[in-house]
Design goal:
With about 475 residues, the protein is an all-alpha fold. The chain contains 30 helices and no strands.
């Protein structure tokens, strides 16, 4: 493996073993890529004509005609005898053949060769090392082709060389490849999306590759695809990617900044496939177990409670599962979430709701809460206030806008310097813009918030006038009071 990071978690090894590459390829045999590959294998290439027209050299012709045979033992014998010629021939053919149909065939041949014996990926590294060339260049160039089969079959080969080799993929090449995969995920109606997911499932098992994927905005891309309408196979593959990412404690701590809990909770409530349910529960368990900071684990538990995960767990407890891991995860999560509910402070609950971005008229939006907690919104450089103001600016949901407006008003009402803080953070202008919102509830809450902002201002002004004028005129208190 390219990674030198070993996972001590037995569950990681169990699932990775149960989904080894051969088995996943059998599962993926229904994918568009695999179906087309099967058709392409049957369309033999006339190597003689390529040689006669001097499109390939004599030694490449000799190697490929000996290699392109059904007899596995003959291929193995040839590779043992002439390893470097194998790499040279494949790279020459990929670099010089322009016809799409032939390129497709060469790529299928190369992919099958690697699938037959994972250690053969080293053939390409040995050749590149000898020639002092990049092993990745010839393959990455093919990702620019127009033909979807060519680019996605090339992507499969890259993933295999990157994951099965002792030499990890270098940073700039890795960045290019992961960005390409990410862009393929975002492509509308990509018929090869299952193959893209498959490559990511392989790549993200390796720790160095995980951080590179996060750096190209990979997590939010996975979640934006999962938030749309995708079939259960794609759901499973992309959640599998999130699951392997959470084995890194640092990534497990950061993961919910992308709203992963809320999005997966929604999928869990609609899920009818056991494998999708299983992998979501495994992600949730890691989000509680893997972070080294107990406060983060606690926040993840609260986020799950607020995303109605306990209700789903109660439903799942009534079902019989073939996989014992599912039952164990349901029990673990139920116990942890129930205990987190018991020692949940109202401020914890409020903070988690704000960070989720899904505001509703929950009990924490009441006056008693604000009397006790208004000042706490100043913590961490006004983190929660900044999120509230960001929601006012970006949310399209009338409920979110109504609750956020109410909260801004209550903060100002219960914290003496609240108006100044809100103005400095740009909140006052956003609340005033909502006075013209099409939804009557939003207009109403925005109006109340503006009144609190203005009343607070007048009270403050009145007190200042009182101080300044009390020594000069006996009537100054009356004037200030009227102001």
């Amino acid at each position: 493996m390219a990674s030198n990071v070993q996972h001590s978690d037995p569950k990681f090894h169990d699932i990775i073993t149960s989904f080894d590459d051969g088995k996943i390829d059998m599962l993926a045999a229904t994918s568009v890529l695999q179906q087309k590959a099967s058709d392409i294998r049957s369309q033999k290439v006339n190597w003689q004509s390529y040689f006669q027209s001097q499109m390939i050299s004599q030694e490449d012709f000799q190697f490929i005609t000996q290699f392109d045979v059904p007899d596995r033992e003959k291929r193995e014998e040839l590779l043992q005898r002439d390893r470097l010629q194998c790499a040279q021939t494949f790279l020459n053919l990929l670099g010089h053949v322009s016809k799409d149909q032939t390129l497709q065939y060469i790529l299928v041949l190369a992919d099958d060769m690697l699938q037959e014996d994972h250690s053969r990926v080293e053939i390409f590294h040995e050749y590149a090392h000898k020639k002092k060339e990049s092993v990745w260049g010839p393959f990455l160039n093919l990702l620019n082709r127009q033909d979807g089969f060519i680019t996605n079959m090339t992507s499969r080969i890259i993933a295999k060389i990157a994951c099965w080799s002792h030499t990890p993929m270098e940073r700039s090449d890795l960045h290019f490849y992961l960005t390409w995969l990410k862009d393929q995920l975002k492509m509308q109606n990509n018929e090869y999306i299952q193959s893209v997911g498959r490559c990511l499932q392989m790549m993200l098992r390796i720790d160095e590759y995980r951080f590179a994927f996060v750096s190209v905005d990979g997590i939010s891309t996975l979640l934006s695809v999962l938030s749309g309408r995708v079939n259960f196979q794609i759901q499973y593959q992309l959640i599998f990617c999130l699951w392997v990412l959470t084995f890194n404690p640092l990534l497990a701590e950061k993961m919910n900044k992308f709203n992963v809990i809320l999005i997966l909770a929604d999928i869990l409530s609609d899920s009818v496939k056991e494998k999708v349910t299983r992998i979501i529960l495994a992600v949730f368990r890691n989000l509680i177990e893997k972070p080294e900071d107990p406060q983060v684990s606690k926040e993840h538990c609260i986020a799950m409670v607020q995303s109605k995960v306990l209700k789903q767990l109660a439903i799942l407890e009534q079902r019989k599962f073939e996989d014992e891991d599912v039952t164990a995860d349901v029990e673990f999560l139920t116990e942890r979430l129930q205990s987190s509910v018991q020692d949940l402070s109202s401020f914890d609950e409020y903070a988690t709701e704000i960070k989720s971005g899904r505001l509703e008229w929950s009990p924490v939006h009441k006056s008693k809460f604000w009397r006790e907690n208004a000042q706490r919104l100043n913590e961490k450089n006004y983190e929660l206030l900044r999120i509230l103001i960001h929601l006012l600016e970006t949310s399209k949901d009338p409920l979110v806008l109504s609750v956020a407006s109410f909260d801004i008003g209550e903060y100002v009402r219960h914290y003496p310097r609240g108006k100044t803080v809100i103005e400095q953070l740009g909140g006052k202008q956003l609340v005033m813009q909502l006075l013209a919102h099409e939804d009557p509830n939003v207009r109403y809450e925005a109006l109340l918030a503006v009144q609190k902002l203005m009343v607070h201002n007048w009270e403050y002004l009145g007190k200042q006038l009182e101080k300044e004028q009390s020594s000069e005129k006996p009537s100054s208190k009356v004037v200030a009071g009227k102001a």
